[in-house]
Design brief:
The complex is a heterodimer of chains A (316) and B (418). By secondary structure, chain A is mainly alpha-helical. Helices cover 71% and strands 0% of the residues of chain A. Chain A has 14 helices and no strands. In chain B, a hairpin with a 2-residue loop joins β8 and β9. The chains are: A mainly alpha (316), B alpha/beta (418).
């Protein structure tokens, strides 16, 4: 009905993009306006992201301490990054952490998302909220809480497990168990986010596909393998890349729970960056290490996107 | 158009704000104003505030305002504050952190100040002053220097029938064995004779102290000396006592040791003056004794705090800061600071009677000359201490001591050569 009336001030159909050009004035003004709208974001990005990045790039070629004198030392910092045994140890630890964290977090998130996507699941909304809560808690707080839970003297978890005949021991001081422990805390803390993303992805899959598959006699595993997984591949790529980036940046819970110990077994690259910058005041080296980590992360993300992009093409 | 103007206005306002944030305060010709960061948060903090207030009241030219932070957050924020030109004029920090800042040019040298008779530095404990030297130049003034000591539970000592505190390592271990109780015989004592951490020890000082006791050390004259027969013996001796005789749990760190002692589960701990108040809070009757003598000598690594002046200061501000240091170190304030903070006096000319009213200070003052600065002048103390932690932790875990010492020697020398 209303479509037959001339548009009123209160009910105006949306103009197509750029359709209000004449009303607002000429191109220069439009550009100025766009710039004004973008300015706050650009100023913030420029000041807090781009300028620090450029400044860190410059510092990475110097022996800067952050104040006072600094000298240009060329590639020395970068050479040290690739030769210092402590850094190589930290790289190994970071990769181990990534291997422990990423598949576990993604599998847990996907498994629980599948479970809680089922309409037959009782208390669905309660569980969905409950699983997301750890993600809302500050990482440092979560790390402190877990340190107390697994404390060999006063830990609640140790106490319960002891009741069941399992002696957990001093996990954070154990050279083999410390890394799995800090990775576990990260899984607990972060998987809720991936879980929500998976849930959204699952809800995007049309139920008619499952119905058709059912009619054709496909079993649960086949339906998962041939419908769910392929149609989730975009979501999967996103979650994997995010989880991997989170793993490569591991710092918070390690700083709180083990401080990189026992004897360097949980020392990650970001811990090294922190230590070089803030403990040894070698800001130049810390910047170089940050750049190497940045480029490694970019490359790994790129590889994953290309892989998933190709898969998706193959599937379609 | 109105919206456009508002937007531009907001942008301009934002820029103005940013601009304002970048410019610092100006010199208005009034009194010199100094900022002083420190991490004294307990009773010691109150006394320090009092001394600062007294100083501000004592003259009209200088006003000091303090900013209390935790020691860790001072370390985390000083670098960024100084690089932004917003750092404090005076900063107090754990003494082993001084060399790295000084070597990077963050602190002003104080040799002239020390040379000045009115600086009240002539009678400072020379071991405390040694903490302040980097490459022959002094960059700080000590505000605390106390040797690690044994804090012991007198009730448990009485129960075990030990009348006198041990004086040698052998007696020490023997006493610890007597105090270790495994009632149910399951191999895990319910009460330990002593809490001896194998890493992250109090002020990183336990193992250096034990090394000194047998005539060993970690760094001497800028060279790593950790790989020695003396240190190998020390590690073997204590490994046998901790693991073999089970006088202490393994895998402890400094905080865990404090907790065992304050929970009444360990009869002795090696710690700093704060253990006195922790013991009192936990209703533990305690006494303080110097670390028993090792086969070679009696010595203990000291917990040290230094105050320094930063490069973010003008000449007038530096002179003003020095004036405060001299005031802080005068006889009256030395006694006041010592009594209030519970740390022994920094000046050797303050008689023990002057601080007798505080029994903790009195006992610590008696052992003051046993204290040795931890890694004085070592710029990369981070890596050196990490290497020591790794050495002791792996040694107690049962790895070959000679191999470990060789590795630690290389790592420490590398850190020193950095």
């Amino acid at each position: 009905m209303s479509l037959h009336h001339p548009p009123t001030r209160r009910y105006r159909p949306p103009a197509p993009l750029g359709g209000r050009r004449r009303a607002a004035g000429g191109r220069p003004l439009r550009n100025a306006k766009a710039a004004a709208f973008l300015a706050p974001a650009l100023i913030i990005l420029g000041l807090f992201v781009i300028w620090p990045m450029l400044s860190a790039l410059r510092l990475s070629f110097t022996d800067a301490s952050g104040f006072g004198r600094e000298e240009w030392i060329g590639l020395e910092n970068y050479i040290e990054v690739f030769t210092d045994p402590d850094i190589l140890n930290a790289v190994g630890n970071t990769l181990l952490y990534t291997v422990l964290f990423t598949p576990t977090a993604v599998a847990a998130a996907l498994g629980l998302a599948l479970l809680l996507n089922s309409p037959h699941m009782p208390f669905r909304s309660f569980f969905r909220t409950a699983l997301f809560i750890p993600f809302v808690i500050s990482f440092a707080v979560a790390a402190f809480a877990w340190s107390y839970l697994i404390d060999p003297q006063v830990g609640l978890l140790n106490y319960w497990l002891r009741g069941a005949g399992i002696e957990l021991g001093n996990v954070l001081e154990d050279p083999t168990l410390a890394m799995p422990a800090v990775a576990f805390v990260a899984v607990w803390k972060l998987f809720g986010f991936y879980f929500v993303i998976f849930l959204a992805g699952l809800q995007d899959i049309p139920s008619s596909l499952y119905e058709a598959a059912r009619v054709d006699g496909a079993r649960a595993w086949s339906r998962f393998r041939h419908i769910t997984l392929p149609l989730l591949s975009n979501t999967m790529a996103f979650v994997l890349v995010f989880a991997m980036i989170a793993a490569l940046q591991a710092f918070d819970q390690i700083y709180v729970m083990t401080g990189g110990g026992p004897y360097g077994n949980t020392q990650t690259v970001v811990m090294e960056i922190y230590e070089s910058g803030f403990r040894k005041l070698d800001v130049g080296f810390a910047s170089a290490l940050s750049y190497v980590l940045l480029i490694a992360t970019l490359l790994l993300s790129l590889v994953q996107f290309v892989f998933f992009g190709r898969r998706e093409k193959e599937l379609s | 158009m109105t919206r456009m103007r508002t937007l531009l206005g907001a942008g301009a306002a934002a820029l103005t704000l940013i601009g304002a944030g970048c410019s610092g305060g100006g010199d208005d010709g009034g009194p010199v104003e100094l900022t002083f960061w420190h991490g004294y948060t307990e009773a010691d903090g109150d006394v320090l505030e009092e001394i600062v207030d007294d100083f501000n009241a004592s003259q009209n030219d200088i006003t000091i305002s303090t900013e209390v932070k935790t020691w860790d957050s001072i370390d985390d924020t000083l670098l960024t504050a100084l690089s932004a030109g917003e750092g404090p004029n005076i900063v107090a920090m754990p003494a082993e952190r001084l060399p790295v800042y000084a070597s990077k040019g963050a602190f002003a040298p104080l040799d002239d100040f020390y040379a000045d008779e009115s600086s009240n530095t002539a009678n400072l404990n020379p071991n405390a002053v040694a903490m302040e030297e980097i490459d022959g130049e002094k960059y700080g003034v000590p505000s605390g220097f106390v040797p690690l000591a044994v804090y012991y539970n007198t009730a448990l000592f009485e129960e075990a029938g030990i009348g006198e505190f041990p004086r040698t390592w052998d007696e020490w271990v023997q006493a610890a064995e007597q105090l270790t109780v495994d009632e149910d015989g399951d191999g895990t004592p319910e009460q330990y004779g002593i809490a001896l951490p194998d890493h992250a020890t109090v002020a990183n000082g336990l193992w250096p102290s034990l090394f000194y006791g047998n005539g060993g050390g970690i760094v001497e004259d800028g060279e790593a000396v950790v790989d020695s027969q003396e240190n190998a013996e020390t590690l073997e001796f204590w490994r046998s006592a901790i693991v073999g005789d089970r006088i202490s749990p393994t895998g402890l760190d400094g905080i865990g040791s404090d907790e065992l002692f304050s929970g009444g589960k360990a009869a002795m701990t090696v710690g700093g003056p704060w253990m006195a108040s922790i013991a009192t809070e936990n209703d533990i009757d305690y006494a303080i004794a110097p670390l028993p003598a090792g086969p070679a000598e009696q010595a203990a690594s000291a917990i040290g705090i230094s105050m320094a002046t930063t490069v973010d200061s003008s000449d007038a501000e530096l002179a003003a800061a020095e004036e405060f240091f001299a005031f802080f170190l005068n006889e009256e304030n030395s006694v006041k600071w010592s009594l209030g903070s519970g740390w022994p006096p920094l000046r050797t000319d303050i008689p023990a009677e002057a601080v007798a009213e505080n029994p903790v200070v009195a006992s610590l003052t008696e052992m003051s000359d046993l204290g040795r600065p931890l890694l004085p002048g070592v710029v990369n103390s981070v890596d050196v201490l990490t290497a020591v932690d790794e050495l002791t932790q792996k040694a107690i875990a049962g790895e070959d001591v000679d191999t470990l010492l060789g590795e630690a020697q290389t790592e420490i020398q590398d850190a020193l050569d950095d």
